[in-house]
Amino acid sequence: MRICLVTPFAWSQPHDVNEHVAGVASGLRALGHEVTVLAPSTRAADLLAGRRALLRGEQADVIAVGPAIPVSRRSQLGVPVGVQANLRLALAQGAYDLVHGFEPGLPSLSYLALRDTDALAVATFVSADRLGYPPARSQREKLLGRLDALIALSEQTPSASSPARSASASSSSCARTSASSPAASCMRCASCQSGKSSSSGPAP
């Protein structure tokens, strides 16, 4: 599978979510999948390499699609238009089978990628403190309806989200959603797709 992992946090700086994303990417590549991480960055060299990759239509392990901006559920600063355009271009060029956004409950690349992709969509919620975006309930429901699978990495996260559509999964399994996509009937993780059952392996 061609898999895209999207993180809202600067790849150039240490972050617990990015460490998790890097581990997921490594595990999926070991299973034979093609994996690209899309992320912001504060490092000029990363941004230049990302720009070149997009201009040339090249694939890379990590593509920096724009400069990092502060992200939080209270943030009033949206993703810059140019970065949104880079994200759409990266998704189109990648022709991914699956797009996996991490912490999409923030105004960020992850939210936009899951909202706009035509591929299978998976969301991972890491912290219960990073929920609540978009602020309008109808928009949140629209995003949840777009997803094929939800993953929660803590027991607190499902209880903090909407009871009707919570991500009631642990770090080792995916929660099946009631989305209308046929893939929702059995959309778990790439290790399942490859026929390998794992209680601790990474999800896409």
Explain briefly what this protein structure is.
By secondary structure, the chain is α/β, with parallel strands linked by helices. Helix content is 34%, strand content 18%. Mean pLDDT is 76; it is low at 162-203.
Summarize the helices and strands and which ones pair or pack.
Blueprint lengths: L1 E5 L9 H15 L3 E8 L2 H13 L5 E6 L13 H14 L3 E5 L6 H8 L3 E6 L11 H10 L2 E4 L3 H5 L14 E2 L13 H4 L11
Parallel strand pairs: 1-2, 1-4, 2-3, 4-5, 5-6
Antiparallel strand pairs: 6-7
Helix pairs in contact: 3-4
Task: Please characterize this protein's 3D structure.
There is one protein chain. With 204 residues, the protein is of the alpha/beta class. The chain has a single domain (2-193), classed as 3-Layer(aba) Sandwich (Rossmann fold), CATH 3.40.50.2000. The protein has seven helices and seven strands; from the N terminus they run βαβαβαβαβαβαβα. It has a seven-stranded mixed sheet with strand order 3-2-1-4-5-6-7, sandwiched between helices. Helix 4 links the parallel strand 4 and strand 5. The longest helix is centred in the N-terminal third of the chain and has 15 residues, at 16-30. The model is unreliable at 162-203 (pLDDT under 50).
